[in-house]
Every structure is written in C-alpha cells, then in structure tokens.
Amino acid sequence: MAFRCKGGVASVALLVAVAALASAAQGFPNPFGHEEFTDSYYDDTCPNAQSIVRSVMERHAAANPRTAPAILRLFFHDCFVNGCDASILLNATDSMESEKDAEPNATLAGFDVIDGIKSELERSCPATVSCADVLALAARDAVAMLGGPSWGVLLGRKDSVTASIDMAKEDLPNPKDSLAELIRMFEINGLDERDLTALSGAHTVGMAHDCKNYEDRIYSRVGQGGDSIDPSFAAQRRQECEQKHGEAMAPFDERTPTKFDNAYYVNLLARRGLLTSDQELYTQGCETGDLVKTYAMNGDVFYADFVRAMVKMGNIRPKHWWAPAEVRLKCKGGVASVALLVAVAALASAAQGFPNPFGHEEFKESYYDETGGVASVALLVAVAALASAAQGFPNPFGHEEFKESYYDETCPNAQSIVRSVMERHAAADPRTAPAILRLFFHDCFVNGCDASILLNATDSMDSEKDAEPNASVAGYGVIDDIKSELERSCPATVSCADVLALAARDAVAMLGGPSWGVLLGRKDSLVASMDMVKENLPSPTDSLAELIRMFKEHDLDERDLTALSGAHTVGRTHSCKHYEERIYSLVGQGGDSIDPSFAAQRRQECEQNHGNATAPFDERTPAKFDNAYYVDLLARRGLLTSDQELYTQGCETGDLVKTYAMNGDVFFADFARAMVKMGNMRPKHWWTPAEVRLKCSVANTHY
C-alpha cells in the first residue's frame, strides 16, 4: 500500500488531510475546523453565547475604559497572523513561543477579558464556543460600546493548536509602513484599498504607547509637503515625547479619542495623523485619498464600509486548510497534538457506526452490498495527490512549483525550438506575434494558463475556440507546429501550456518589446469550458470598474491591468461592434469622450465596410510593441471603451497611463512583471486532473 512504500511512513500532514477528506466524504464537518461560517452557528448548541459575550464585555468596559479599544486591536492582530484562529491568545510552552511575545504585540491587552468571557461560556455551554469566535464577537461589541456600528458576526471558527512568533513579526503591518506596503499586506489577506482605508478607521479610538512609533513624522516631516505634518501638531507631540523620555502615550484621534466616529479622517485631512501608516492614506493614495475625504464628510458611509470590511477580515482563514484546530477549553493554553486529533477523528467515526477512515476494520464478503462501494471521486483524487506528495513525487494533477529551469535536464532545447518556429511563422505572416499574445491572454483568463483554449470539441465537450469572445482568435497552427517539433526532440515532456507561455514571451520580443524569464512547469487541462469563456473574459465594452473586478478575481491589481492592457499596442479589432458605441455615442461628451476626428475616421471605415472593418488598437505604430498605445489614450484616441476608460475614468490607472506614455522603460518593466504574474494563474481547484498532451488540440485519451 502507498503508505508503506520504501519502508516509509505516511506524513502526519497526509494523515491529517485524509482524515478531513474522509470525514467530508461521509457528510461530517471537517474535523480541522474550516467549515462555512454562519451567524446562526450556535443557535442550537449555545443560544446565549452572544448575550454572555456582551454582558462580560460591558462589565469590563465599565471598570476600564481602555477595554473596548484593546479588544478591537487584539482581533486585528489575531486575524493578520494566519487567519482569525485565536493563536494570539496562546501562552508559550516548552516547545512553542507565544505570539504575545512578538515585538509588534508587546503592548496588546485584553487577554484577561477574553479569558473571563470564555470561563462563563464554559459554565453555560462546555466545549462549544471557540475562542476565535469569542474574540470576533467581543470586537463587534467593543465597536458598538464605543458608539460605532454593530453587525451580524459570522461564526464557526475553530482555534489553532499552535502559534507562530515568526509570522507575527512578518505579517503584522508596521506603524511606519508606506501605503504601498500596507496595500500589499492587505491584498495578501484578500483585502482591497477600500477595506484598508475603512479598517484603518479603528484608529479613531486607542493610543500609541511609544514615541518610536511616530518619531519619524514629528521630527523629520515638518514642512516637507506631500506627507508632511501640521507644524503645531508635530511641536505638541515632540514636547510630550521629550518630557516623557520617549515613552509618551498619544491618542490616534486627538479630537474624540474614546468615541468611535469619523474624526480620525478629519485629522488626516488636516495632516494631523499620528502614524505614517495613517497619514499616507490621504497624502500618498489616489483611491485611499478619495475615501478619506468621503469618510470625513459622511460618517454613515464610513460605518457601512467598516462593517463590510470587518466581516471580510473576520473571514480570513488559516493559509492551509489542513491546519489542525479545535475548540479550546481555555483560550490561553491546551495544545492538542496532531496525533491525538487524528486518533479522535477515527474514534468519532467508529462511534457513529462509520468505517474507520484509516482502514483497519473487520473484513467481510458483504462489505459493499449496501453502499455500492464507490468512493467519492473528489476524495480519491485528493488522496492520490496527497499520497504522491507524501512520497516526494510531483502532484499527479500537475500543479507543482513553476521554475525557469524546469526543462533544463529533460528538454534543454525547448526554448530555442519555440523561438525558432515562432520566427519562421512570424516571417511568413506578420500577424502571428499579436495573435499568439492574444491567445495566451484568452487561455489564462479561463481557469488559469492550462492550454484549455487549444482543445478541439468532442462529442461530450464544447471547445473554448467556439465561444463568441474567441471567434477571431488565431495562432493555433503555430502552437501545433511548435509542439510537433518538441515531440520529435523531447517526446511527452513539454506541455502545451508552457509552449503557449514561451511563445507569448517570444512574440512580444519579436515585436520590439521586452523579454523575461518564463516560469515553467504548467500542465495541460483535460477539458475545456465554453461557459467559463463567456463568463471570465473581459469584453471590449466593459467599464473600468468591471475590468478591475475581473482582474482582481485573478489576483491582478490595477497596475497589472493597466500594464497588460498595453498589449493593445499591437494587433487589430475585427468588427465595428466592438467600438461602435464610442464612435457614435460619445463624441463631445467630455469624460470618456473620443477625439472627433478619430471618431469620424472610424465611422467612415465602418460604414464603407458594412460594419466589418478591421482597425488597429494603436494607430501610431500598430506593428511595434511600444508605449504609443498610452499616448493615444492621452489624446482620447483609444479604440475600445475598455482601453480609454483606463485614462478617463481611473485614478490610479489614469496616473499610470500618463507614466507609461512618458516612459516606455517603466511600461516594459511593469508589463514583464505582470505577464509573469498572469502566467502563474492556475486552475481554481488544485485537484483538477492534468497531463502533458501529446497533441495540443486533443487530450491524450482521444489521441
């Protein structure tokens, strides 16, 4: 059996994962705690849970007004370190350091409040309500007690059995962080710039405990413009710090430091934000700056966005779904071993009359008479992948780590073969390179870069090629020729997905654009999805807001969107319907209007060709990969709505259009970075079967 291959023992991680999958296959909750959250989670098992939390919170807050801000901060510091799992509450043990002892958590308080709530819950509902849910509820009640909004808390979290002091040091935002760094850290946790700006409003209450958190602002930024500080505010803070020898406490919001309101944002408008990480929301941010002004003028908008963002942050889960979890009996301690959890999962299954998930039952002839003996396909697929990983073999479903050197030993000439065939085709047909670049985009945006776009239709499957957005896509013959040469040189080695990624890189370079190292190791999908094409590919008439949303779904930000749109510096659109709205409806309207002479030229061509005119995206240098596309946008001569709105409707994107128009090197660098990022897009489900196709147009089972 796989667990005993080469005398080895299956890894604990594999056993843990199998236990979870076996439990799920039987319809039981995941024993590692990562179920769907609901606000009714304890309605049957502990109906008084929320009232108990609120009662204890009110008692502590009445005795100590610093309680509510402390609990709110405690929740933030928990969620940003591997999800909202109460790991922040664990004390150190002989084998584990506590997150409490990490430098960013040195001034945290409120642990005793959570312990007090948990004690009362244990008396009322033993071993039922997790410490993670206690903290989430207490944070909500803290905001409401301070005069802020309330909301329904989604419940069902479980408590981590471990803590990580290293992750606390790495993953928590720093008071001196730049806006760019804050945006990056929030994006890692699935939070956008609106969430960042709203959640930062928690600094409308609470205090900074040490001058070192803001000394750079009060000593270095006076009178500098940009992120400068109000001189009188800086002088006041300097005086307090010097009098207290650097240990002065200062409120984040000097106006109403004990009230949850929007005064924090009013302070930022006056450049009286205490921390660099606060002030930069207004002085360095485009989208965030606009939100600061909105929240300062309208507290109701701030409240609504804060609630939405708190729910979103409260849903941050551990990075690995198989991370062991439990409902702690005491929030500060009690770390169950993984072995114990695995054993309990088996015993619990047996107690319910179900098979032992680890297989050691009595054998009998009638074993499958009632069940039919068919294991869940998802379970079989997942277990196969996990078993393979436990033995050190690649994931059989193809989703390994990508690297540039992937074929160095197995097919060292792969990249030169791709380039050679690309050059031959491009010399014969100058439309080759733009077509291949477009083909790569259209593949990656539909369930990742898996070459699904190359598959022909079968009796049981429609082809993505036949979806309306792909009607004018070309270059399939080029990819087939490259693959044929690779098969002669390195049979069954180089995937069609990697061929397409390499060919797209070479296409850009052949057109005069940048080159970059392509990360390799993709595998080819066995299936295509026409429906996903229709849903996931951007449309030429999409608004900027819709484009931003679609790109964010693929972890691509506004910089990626603006840079990747620059691929329209080459190529042509094949039908007037893609831009007829712009050339007929937007002339002279301002905002997203179009240059009248450009519109007249395009209308004439469309009418002469009965709506079937082809037009270059970039009229200046349509066969050269350069930054002229962005120059066209500045002149409102962008062909598509989805192009022009980057400049006329976007704050961050508009600034980037101007930057790229003035500096082609910046565009080239950002384009290469974004292409690598897009090329790393994987199928949504890691267990999706994959292979190295022998022929790009058909799965191996049909070849």
UniProtKB/TrEMBL annotation:
Transition state stabilizer (site feature) positions: 438
Keywords: Calcium, Disulfide bond, Glycoprotein, Heme, Hydrogen peroxide, Iron, Metal-binding, Oxidoreductase, Peroxidase, Pyrrolidone carboxylic acid, Signal
Cofactor dependency: heme b; Ca(2+)
Cofactor binding, per record: Binds 1 heme b (iron(II)-protoporphyrin IX) group per subunit.
Any Pfam family: peroxidase
Molecular function GO terms recorded: heme binding; lactoperoxidase activity; metal ion binding
PROSITE patterns noted in UniProt: PEROXIDASE_1 (PS00435), PEROXIDASE_2 (PS00436), PEROXIDASE_4 (PS50873)
GO annotation terms (biological process): hydrogen peroxide catabolic process; response to oxidative stress
Residues at which substrate binds: 538
Cross-referenced InterPro entries: Haem_peroxidase, Haem_peroxidase_sf, Peroxidase_pln, Peroxidases_AS, Peroxidases_heam-ligand_BS, Secretory_peroxidase
Sequence positions that bind heme b: 568
Xref: Gene3D superfamilies: 1.10.520.10, Peroxidase, domain 2
Disulfide feature: 411-490, 444-449, 496-696, 576-606
Record: residues binding Ca(2+) 1: 443, 446, 448, 450, 452, 464
Domain spans labelled Plant heme peroxidase family profile: 36-332, 401-700
Annotated active site: 442
EC numbers on record: 1.11.1.7
Catalyzed reaction equations: 2 a phenolic donor + H2O2 = 2 a phenolic radical donor + 2 H2O
Highest taxon of the lineage: Eukaryota
Binding site for Ca(2+) 2: 569, 618, 621, 626
Family: Belongs to the peroxidase family. Ascorbate peroxidase subfamily.
Protein name, entry field: peroxidase
Organism encoding this protein: Oryza meridionalis
